[in-house]
Structure formats: C-alpha cells, structure tokens
C-alpha cells in the first residue's frame, strides 16, 4: 500500500519543488521500471501535477516502480517516472507536447459536440452482445469463440453495433464542417494519414481510455510478449480513403504495441488490409517470407486487432469511401524495457531467423569438429 504523506508536508512540497522535508530523488538514470507490476500496490493520483501527460499514465506506471520506490513521497515518485518518460523525448519534442496541449485546449473550448453520448455514455452500450459476453467471461476460449485468426496474432471480430458506427461517422462530419466554417487548421493524426481526424484533439480521449479498458484483457492474453499486459496510453484517430483523397496506405508499422482497427463503413470496394510479418526496429525493412503474407477483408463494424510492429498496409479503395477508427495502444513499461535488449527473437521474425541460423551454424561447426577428431590417428 502507498504511504500517506502528512497534509502539512504535502503543502510544503509540491511536485517539481525542492523541500527539506522530502528526501532527494535517486539518480534516475541508474533505475528502471519493473517488468511485472505490483498488483497489490494501490497507486496515488497524479491529478494537478502539471504534466503534459495523462495523470492515469503515472498512476499505472507507479505499479511498475522498484519496491524501494513504492513508499517514497508522491513528488519523488512523480519526478522519477517523469524522468523515465522524458528519456523518450528530446527538448524539441517536449516543446511540441506543450504546444499540443495548448492546441487541444483551444479546440475543446470552442467545438460543440454533435453527439454528447460519445463523450459521456459508457461505451459498452454500443458493443455487440457476443463481444460483451466474451468480455464478461474473460477467458482465452471465450475470446477465441468470437474471433477469426487469419494469421498468428491477427484477430478479426465484430465489436460495435451499427448505431455506434453511424454516430461516430456523423460526429466526424460535424467536426469537418466546424473546421471548414471556422477555417481553423487542424493537425493530421500522423504522417501516414493525409485525410483524417485526431479524435483526442476534440475531447474523445475519455472514450478511447474506456475502450482500452476492454482491449487490455484481450491484449494481456495474446500480446503479453510486447507489452499487451501493461498498456497505459493511446492515440485514437479517423482515417478516410477514397478516389479523390487517400486511396491506400503504404507498407508500415504503427507507433503502438497493440493496434485496434475498426471499419466504420460507407460503401466501398477494395481497401483490404495486408500483413507482412512482425519486425523489431532494427529489422523493420527486412525481407518478407511468403508464408507470412496475408490479406484481411474490411467489413463495416468489424475490428482487426494486431501487434503494432506487424508490418501492414491498406490496398487501394477502388470505388466509394471507407472510414476507419484506429486506436494505437501503448505501453510505457515495454518501451522502457525494450531499451535494454538487442534481440527480440520472441516476436520478431527476423530475429528468430537469425537465431536459428546461428544455431544451425553452431551445430554444423560442432559436427565438423567431431568428424575431424574421429579421423585423427588414435582417435
């Protein structure tokens, strides 16, 4: 359990402020997060700490702190974790994060939502009965009963009722109309999507967090090797495809540990997803083996769940328009741990191939040495 800091001490020492009453923080660069969380530990709230990241991120990270850090004052834990997060960001990136925060606050203060249900109502209201049943059962057998697995680690299943798809598409159209009328310039979701909307920027982050609560148990079962059991942040956006906009998406990997890709609909032909093997950063552009090439049909209301490092793309939309709601789920713990590893043969196809080749070479060398030894006189 977390230790309680006296009220007078809390007033004297706010996060980021020095105080004689609080011990000095450790040398952060010498400490790491633990891979497995302390499930019995009750994390503190980090609301009001003034950070550019979600307070929930720090509460979830706290469970992964080393044992000796669990009982120190909140400001020491906060600075310890913030330093870990900042390791991933250059000063330029930190400035960008601050600007992004101001940008979002400006949009949310002026934009009037069309469907407030999407911002306030529990998202489970829109789940299909079969998905809700599997969630309540929360077992591998239950999830597999509603899923197809066209390739190892790529799952397809129905998740949302048509009503949700219609509401979200309508909300996106309202956002686009507001952007046109106000002539405000909005940021695109990422460098791969030229026509889309970053939903977090318009106040839908709460919906994303709630959805990730339901994806986390699935990810824990199927993607624990790449941080699926420690997802703590996300980025959600709409990507649109059609003849006069983006018609396809090139071969790429996502900035996520786990990706949920939901086809919202509209009438279209073509636009299937294709997958070409899982790769780590070092091998992202390595060759693809024919046996890992698969294509997945896009069906309105259905979801595709896969590793973010599973290389993929979207084929050309031949006619009509297709809209997808994509949620990138991330694990700060996995990203921290990944810095201390050089090989990922547990999930990277190329790392696996290189390990197997080293083993074959080692066995061949040992066999050759044995044969030479046997041929020597007196052997």
TrEMBL record:
Region Disordered, residue ranges: 1-50
UniProt keyword annotation of Cell membrane present: no
Domain Fe2OG dioxygenase: 232-331
InterPro entries according to UniProt: Oxoglu/Fe-dep_dioxygenase_dom, Pro_4_hyd_alph
Known cofactor(s): L-ascorbate
UniProtKB keywords: Dioxygenase, Iron, Metal-binding, Oxidoreductase, Vitamin C
GO terms of molecular function: dioxygenase activity; iron ion binding; L-ascorbic acid binding; oxidoreductase activity, acting on paired donors, with incorporation or reduction of molecular oxygen
Name of the protein this chain belongs to: Fe2OG dioxygenase domain-containing protein
Organism: Kalanchoe fedtschenkoi (Lavender scallops)
């Amino acid at each position: 359990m977390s230790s309680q800091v006296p009220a007078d001490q809390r007033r004297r020492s706010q996060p980021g402020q020095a105080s004689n009453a609080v011990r000095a923080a450790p040398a952060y660069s010498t400490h790491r997060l633990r891979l497995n969380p302390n499930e019995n530990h009750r994390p503190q709230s980090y609301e009001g700490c003034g950070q550019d990241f979600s307070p929930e991120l720090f509460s979830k990270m706290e469970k992964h702190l080393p044992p000796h850090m669990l009982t120190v004052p909140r400001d020491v834990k906060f600075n310890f974790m913030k330093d870990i997060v900042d390791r991933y960001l250059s000063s330029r990136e930190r400035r960008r994060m601050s600007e992004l925060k101001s940008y979002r606050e400006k949009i949310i203060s002026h934009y009037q939502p069309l469907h407030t249900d999407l911002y306030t109502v529990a998202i489970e209201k829109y789940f299909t009965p079969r998905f809700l049943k599997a969630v309540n059962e929360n077992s591998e057998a239950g999830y597999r009963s509603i899923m197809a697995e066209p390739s190892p680690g790529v799952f397809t299943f129905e998740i949302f009722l048509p009503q949700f798809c219609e509401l979200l598409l309508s909300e996106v159209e309202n956002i686009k109309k507001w952007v046109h009328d106000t002539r405000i310039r909005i940021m695109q979701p990422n460098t791969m999507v030229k026509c889309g909307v970053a939903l977090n920027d318009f106040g839908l982050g709460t919906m994303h967090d709630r959805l990730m609560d339901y994806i986390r148990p699935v990810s824990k079962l199927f993607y624990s090797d790449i941080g699926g059991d420690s997802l703590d942040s996300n980025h959600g956006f709409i990507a649109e495809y059609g003849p006069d906009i983006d018609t396809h998406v090139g071969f790429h990997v996502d900035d996520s540990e786990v990706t949920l890709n939901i086809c919202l609909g509209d009438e279209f032909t073509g636009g299937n997803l294709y997958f070409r093997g899982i790769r780590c950063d070092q091998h992202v552009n390595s060759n693809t083996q024919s046996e890992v090439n698969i294509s997945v049909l896009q069906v309105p209301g259905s979801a595709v769940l896969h590793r973010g490092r599973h290389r993929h793309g979207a084929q050309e939309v031949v006619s009509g328009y297709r809209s997808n709601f994509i949620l990138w789920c991330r694990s700060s713990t996995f990203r921290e741990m990944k810095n201390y590893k050089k090989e990922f043969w547990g999930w990277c196809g190329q790392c696996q191939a290189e390990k197997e080749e080293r083993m074959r070479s080692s066995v061949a060398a040992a066999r050759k040495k044995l044969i030479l030894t046997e041929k020597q006189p007196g052997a």
